[in-house]
Amino acid sequence: MKIILFIVSLTLSSSISAGLRQYAAKVETSDWQLSQQSRLQCTLSHKIPGYGEALFTSMASKQLNMEFELDMLRLPKTFGMASVYSVPPRWMPGHMQHAIADMTIRKQYNGDLPEQAAWTMLSELEKGFWPTIYYQDWYNQSDRIAVGLNASNFAVPYENFAQCVSNLLPYSFDDIAYTILAYQKNSTDLTKYSQRRLNMIGQYLKEDSDMELVLLDGYSDSYGGRDMNKTLSVSRAVEIKNYFSEMGVAPQRIEVTGHGERRHVAPNSNEMSRAKNRRVVIRMAKP
């Protein structure tokens, strides 16, 4: 009787194991790469043979951020849910696997996880555990899938990735895409605040000059002659155009318009309000 029970148990165990398809890099071929490295984006990538690629990405922003993406060779056919666990490799006996998060499976989309889960996965990898995603196969209902991230050879690329993240610009494209620069009276000299603002834009353009269109609208107050103010508004915008061109933006993608005294945003009755009219409005668009 015991022999029969053992055989049945062994058969069931083999059946369960056979229904689990596992994807993970081998220890000797586990490869982590800093595939994107700039002050705008840092991406740490890991190839999963036969399955796709795991990606951890942080972007330039006012707030520190992190996202995990599971780039699949075969996109989901249906909606569902995956479970993400931290799994100890076989050379770490005595440790138990534990849950990290649930991942929503969306039809025809890669899997992804938000900031907290992504950071947790990275910390588990740093400790030597393998974050593993489990879900029901959408092409074969008798199979379950296990996608493991091998922690071997992780330490050095992760250190480089962390250094890259710490060097990201503390603002994004959306933070500078619409900017108003203010000027000193009757000149093309920016105020100190606007100089800092322009330097921020310059730092961004050093990393990404791929602008589809930049619109520069120059304005003046009503102090002085109308023709002189028209010329001054153009000069202010042209100086910004030259600055952007030096940063790598193609000149033909920069449009300059001088409006002179037209379209005031404040009265010209006193110096404080006139200062608001001395401005260049920058509008940038990316493909």
UniProtKB/TrEMBL annotation:
Keywords: Membrane, Signal. InterPro entries: Bact_OuterMem_StrucFunc, MotY_N, OmpA-like, OmpA-like_sf. Residues 1-18 form the signal peptide. The keyword Membrane applies. Residues 171-287 form the OmpA-like domain. The keyword Membrane applies. CDD domains: OmpA_C-like. This is OmpA family protein. It comes from Paraglaciecola chathamensis. The lineage of its organism: Bacteria, Pseudomonadati, Pseudomonadota, Gammaproteobacteria, Alteromonadales.
